[in-house]
Write a structure and sequence with these properties.
125 residues; mainly alpha; 82% helix; elongated
């Protein structure tokens, strides 16, 4: 482990796994597990996008400077900021979708389960 956060992540994951089986109805437990699967998938996708964004748009460079001028940005920094956000926007949208599913569950659990299963199937999970 390279730093204390690695240990904390491993410990948190172990605690999560230790919570199973959940003391609730099977379909509620399945919903919780499916939600965890989606979170983990989206987090992995975020790491890939974030890594790319940090490498490509977290620093200056001749290409970014030239591209910012061609695209009409006022500065390379503005271009880098917009492109960085573009890279991580998928994660922002997916966490919003996950939050919405949890909100819907309170009133319409079947609809929430269907939406969650649809998202999982889109990602072959």
């Amino acid at each position: 482990m390279s730093d204390s956060r690695d240990f904390k992540i491993e410990s948190a994951m172990s605690r999560i796994m230790g919570d199973f089986p959940l003391d609730m109805k099977e379909e509620e437990s399945d919903f919780s597990k499916d939600l965890l699967l989606l979170f983990l998938y989206e987090y992995r996708m975020f790491n890939q996008s974030f890594t790319h964004a940090a490498k490509e748009y977290g620093k200056g460079g001749d290409f970014n400077e030239a591209m910012s001028k061609v695209m009409g940005f006022e500065s390379e920094q503005e271009f880098n900021n917009v492109m960085f956000l573009r890279e991580v926007m998928r994660f922002i949208n997916s966490t919003s979708e996950i939050s919405d599913i949890v909100r819907v569950y309170a009133k319409q659990p079947e609809l929430a389960r269907t939406r969650l299963k649809n998202l999982l199937s889109e990602h072959s999970l």
